[in-house]
Amino acid sequence: MTASRSARERVRAELTKEITDIARRQLATEGAGGLSLRAVAREMGMVSSAIYRYFPSRDDLLTTLIIDSYNALGEAVERADAAAPQEDHTARWLAACHAVRDWAVAHPHEYALVYGSPVPGYQAPQDTVAARVRDVTVLGRIASDAWRAGALRTPAEEVPQELEEGVEGFRELMPGVPDGVIWRAVTAWTALYGWVSFEVFGQFNHSFVDRRGAFDHAMRRMAETIGLAQ
Amino acid sequence: MTASRSARERVRAELTKEITDIARRQLATEGAGGLSLRAVAREMGMVSSAIYRYFPSRDDLLTTLIIDSYNALGEAVERADAAAPQEDHTARWLAACHAVRDWAVAHPHEYALVYGSPVPGYQAPQDTVAARVRDVTVLGRIASDAWRAGALRTPAEEVPQELEEGVEGFRELMPGVPDGVIWRAVTAWTALYGWVSFEVFGQFNHSFVDRRGAFDHAMRRMAETIGLAQ
DNA sequence: GCTCGTCAAGAGCAGTGCTCTCGATTTTTT
DNA sequence: AAAAAATCGAGAGCACTGCTCTTGACGAGC
């Protein structure tokens, strides 16, 4: 009976969740800098020091929110990929792109937390690595699948010899795929997040009336660039 | 004689510069969030309230630093472009790219200020627009020059009709250039800053031993993508 | 029933941005 | 040259932050 360890542990779990929920709301409205433990406590009718029973520091609360954000983004991308027809790699790529963009536009502050400038003085603990790679894992899988299915045109030119050893981290994500394809995937990856960051961070203000359409067009052209059939 | 209005105005100008210098140093070490008026005052041997004689608020000091950063980046890009052979558009593009990256790597916090997540609660005043577009103006000019010189391969496919009106802001930067080329320039622009942001913000940690070489290769391939001759 | 661990509360410390007032000094005006 | 005005640094103070420590109440296990 897990309910036996209830009473205390259950209310503790509930309060922890309430803290993170309120903190996430504050994050959405004020941004990472405006996240205040005292404000969270105030909203809960608690005294500020009580929060420290649940999170040893502000950074720890922030870490939780970061991991949650990684997971939310990763899950959105995973779902979008899974919903697209398995064999249509271009559709999967576009679905993943739009999942990233939609989530980022809907949660700009959380997106800034994970793909924006690093929070000063904050060092991401090791716990985040598992959640951090969920989105890029999906992108790597799409590229791998496309390559294995022969849906990727072979890159025209080779990757310089001296750069081969640099892509170790990415090779794990796309095993058995030639370096030229890995490079194209990395390029697409940076182009995707470069575009989304520009849009979310306001670099596209005063241009692009149809932001979604522009993004769609850019990502379609990017698919073409990396060798995906249209 | 401008020296007549000296005494006060001169010491005021000097103190203002000293404040921004110390603030910039703090920015470089602590980041935007760690910029503290009191710390600046302390380092100057002043009392904190005296700073407000020179900058009405922390945001105003930050605005000055942002404008300075825009100008420093823009100037670096302008110089790099000017140093490259006028007719070699690929060389100019690569020089501009490396100028952006070199400056960003050397001044990560200042780069974060202008191309990272927006500072929460901070609204960029109108004064920044002049400095903000210096770098992208150079990129636009390279693309325009390349187009006019016939060094850009014509885009294979057309820009969808419904997206044409969205690129107004960019058309000013590249007058007389067809929309397909503008699109390619915008794509290259986002790819450039997407890559630099990934590198500066730590997304490339644990991959890419030779960061500069990887960046160079990526930007060369991007030049190829937008139709520049190799 | 008693002990032990957990918890909320409160006071307090050091720091922040910012405002206001008060003399002193410098500049401008008369 | 004297008076008026503008400018400046200093200080006190307000409201806020993260965080620590102590105190007293409550509930779970022996």
Structural commentary:
The structure is a homodimer of 230-residue chains. Chain A has 230 residues and is mostly helical. Chain A folds into 2 domains: 1-56, Arc Repressor Mutant, subunit A; 67-226, Tetracycline Repressor, domain 2 (Orthogonal Bundle), CATH 1.10.357.10. Helices cover 66% and strands 0% of the residues of chain A. The first copy, chain A, is built from 11 helices and no strands. Chain A has helices spanning 6-30, 37-44, 48-51, 58-83, 89-106, 108-115, 128-132, 134-148, 168-173, 179-200, 211-225. The longest helix of chain A is centred in the first third of the chain and has 26 residues, at 58-83. Chain A starts with 5 loop residues before the first helix and ends in a 5-residue tail after the last helix. In chain A, 40% of the residues are buried. The model of chain A has no long low-confidence stretch (mean pLDDT 90). The first copy, chain A, binds a DNA duplex (30 and 30 nucleotides) through residues 7-8, 12, 36-39, 46-50, 52-53, 57-58.
Give me a quick take on this structure.
2 copies of one chain form a homodimer. By secondary structure, the first copy, chain A, is mainly alpha-helical.
Query: What is the assembly state of the chains in this entry?
Result: homodimer
Q: Sheet with the most strands of chain A?
A: none
The residue-averaged pLDDT of chain A reads 90
In sequence order, what are the helices and strands of chain A, one letter per element?
Answer: HHHHHHHHHHH
The tally of beta strands of chain A, per DSSP, is: 0
> According to CATH, what is the topology of the largest domain in chain A?
Tetracycline Repressor, domain 2
Which stretches of chain A are low in confidence, meaning pLDDT under 50 for 5 or more residues running?
Answer: none
Evaluate the radius of gyration of chain A. Answer: 21 Å
What is the structural class of chain A? mainly alpha
Report the sheet-strand fraction of chain A: under 5%
Please give the most extensive interface between any two protein chains, plus how many residues each contributes. Answer: A-B, 50 and 50 residues
Number of helices of chain A: 11
Architecture of the largest domain in chain A, according to CATH? Orthogonal Bundle
The helical percent of chain A reads 55-70%
Number of domains of chain A: 2
Quick one: overall form of chain A? elongated
